[in-house]
Automatic annotation (TrEMBL):
It comes from the Eukaryota. This is Tubby C-terminal domain-containing protein. The lineage of its organism: Eukaryota, Fungi, Dikarya, Basidiomycota, Wallemiomycotina.
Length: 164
């Protein structure tokens, strides 16, 4: 049974890159390139390898704070020191958001919520051992904010792969 969603996110392991496909398309549209040794992630538009965002942290997958750069605009992201299941960040329009992971294994879900309006902007649910479905509910946002949503979700998925 084919999942009902807007995007399919494919991943292999903690050290591999994430590939993001629009539903029904054979080739990926985006890739999150993970370089653990350099503590960096790069969000790329495919097939041209155009860099849309870069994320850097002192200890990329273990650290609590991240710096994201989208077309020169800087965003800060941070995780709670007691829980690795939440990631807070502001969109470029200064809307505070949180990415929350709930559940375990196949029943786990990831959700990005605008804290001020309590609106769910994106959801992700694993559909198998190496892929899952992502839906966006961000019709009023520009491309840069959508890139921030994709990147924040991809970071949480990357952090949660070895824990799901």
């Amino acid at each position: 049974m084919e999942p009902q969603c807007a995007y399919i996110i494919e991943f292999k392991s903690l050290a591999s890159n994430l590939l993001i496909f629009k539903k029904g398309v054979q080739y990926p549209d985006y890739e999150l390139d993970v370089n653990v040794t350099r503590s960096r992630m790069t969000f790329l538009e495919l097939p041209y390898q155009k860099r849309l965002a870069r994320v850097h942290g002192p200890k990329l997958l273990l650290g609590k704070g991240y710096k994201m750069s989208i077309n020169g605009e800087k965003l800060r992201m941070h995780r709670d020191s007691h829980r690795s299941t939440c990631l807070w960040f502001d969109l470029l329009d200064k809307s505070p958001c949180v990415v929350v992971k709930g559940g375990h294994g196949d029943g786990s879900t990831y959700r990005i919520t605008n804290i001020l309006t309590n609106e769910i902007l994106a959801t992700f649910q694993p559909s198998g051992p190496s892929y899952g479905c992502m839906n966006l509910n961000a019709g009023g946002y520009d491309n840069q904010n959508l890139i921030a949503l994709f990147t924040a979700m991809a970071i949480m998925i990357r952090l949660g792969i070895d824990r799901t």
